[in-house]
Amino acid sequence: PKQIHEIKDFLLTARRKDARSVKIKRSKDIVKFKVRCSKYLYTLCVFDQEKADKLKQSLPPGSLIIFIKTHRSRLLELCHTLNHLHLDFYIDTLHVLLLHVFRFECARPLKMKK
């Protein structure tokens, strides 16, 4: 794996003939763009959400783009959607339920002793 520090270099790499796919991984404060080429996986880390959105729009057309979401971002996206639907009465109950689901999914499995 190699890290790219400039957006321009990343776009040139994404436009290469051997670039197979672009993965976009969003987390709380960072967006990672990963382009798979024949030899290496190149990664660009973007800390500004607006720059990340502009970069996503300027990716070459026809390339395979895969979005990877973390559990936290999925839950936050769902809560954000429900807030827009003005379901304030149900938000608190659902928020507590989602937090329990999030904790359950993130918990490590217990190791059984033989």
From TrEMBL:
**Can you name one GO molecular function term for this protein?**
structural constituent of ribosome
A single GO cellular-component term from the record reads: ribonucleoprotein complex
- In the UniProt record, does the keyword Ribonucleoprotein occur? yes
Q: Name one Pfam family in it.
A: Ribosomal_L38e
Keyword list, A-Z: Ribonucleoprotein, Ribosomal protein
Report the superkingdom from the record.
Answer: Eukaryota
Q: Which InterPro entries is this protein grouped with?
A: Ribosomal_eL38, Ribosomal_eL38_sf
Q: What GO biological process terms does the UniProt entry carry, in alphabetical order?
A: translation
Similarity annotation: Belongs to the eukaryotic ribosomal protein eL38 family.
What PANTHER family does the entry give? 60S RIBOSOMAL PROTEIN L38
Please state what the protein is called. 60S ribosomal protein L38
- This protein's species is Brassica campestris
